[in-house]
Design a protein that fits this description.
By secondary structure, the chain is mostly beta strands. It has a single domain, classed as Sandwich (Immunoglobulin-like). The strands form two sheets. Strands 1-7-4-5 form a four-stranded mixed sheet, with no helix packed on it. Strands 2-3-6 form a three-stranded antiparallel sheet. The longest helix has 14 residues. The termini are far apart.
């Protein structure tokens, strides 16, 4: 129930910032605390994040949008954390995904252990 309330609050906070210009920050509200951006966002922003628990595992879906007309390359990974904020495991390897101009895509992450209670989405954006 707690994850559902967090997801609802996160969604409400994010929807308020969804119609901003290209110069808007990459994330607003609760999503900003979950994002670890390496460098400039280059027009990529987090539109919405959904977090829930399925089969005792944390599942995250993050909707990202390229607000520019230029193609971008995103390198991302989820950093999984325990209830004390400590990283669980050695961390995932970075995944690469291309974003065409104005494209919206969903990134999905599933925790590897049941003791994971939080996460950070770490990403780097480059020109294509």
């Amino acid at each position: 129930m707690k994850q559902i309330m967090i997801a609802a609050a996160l969604t409400a906070a994010l929807l308020g910032g969804a119609a901003q210009a290209d110069t808007a920050p990459p994330a607003t509200g609760g999503a900003a605390s979950k994002l670890m951006l390496r460098g400039d966002a280059m027009g990529i922003k987090v539109v919405e994040m959904r977090v829930q628990r399925r089969n005792d595992m944390l599942v995250v879906q993050a909707d990202l949008q390229n607000t520019s007309n230029s193609d971008r390359q995103i390198f991302y990974r989820f950093r999984w954390l325990d209830s004390n904020g400590g990283q669980v495991g050695d961390g995932e390897t970075f995944k690469q995904v291309g974003f065409m101009g104005q494209q919206l895509q969903t990134l999905k992450g599933i925790a590897t252990q049941s003791n994971i209670t939080d996460f950070r989405l770490e990403m780097n954006v480059e020109s294509k």
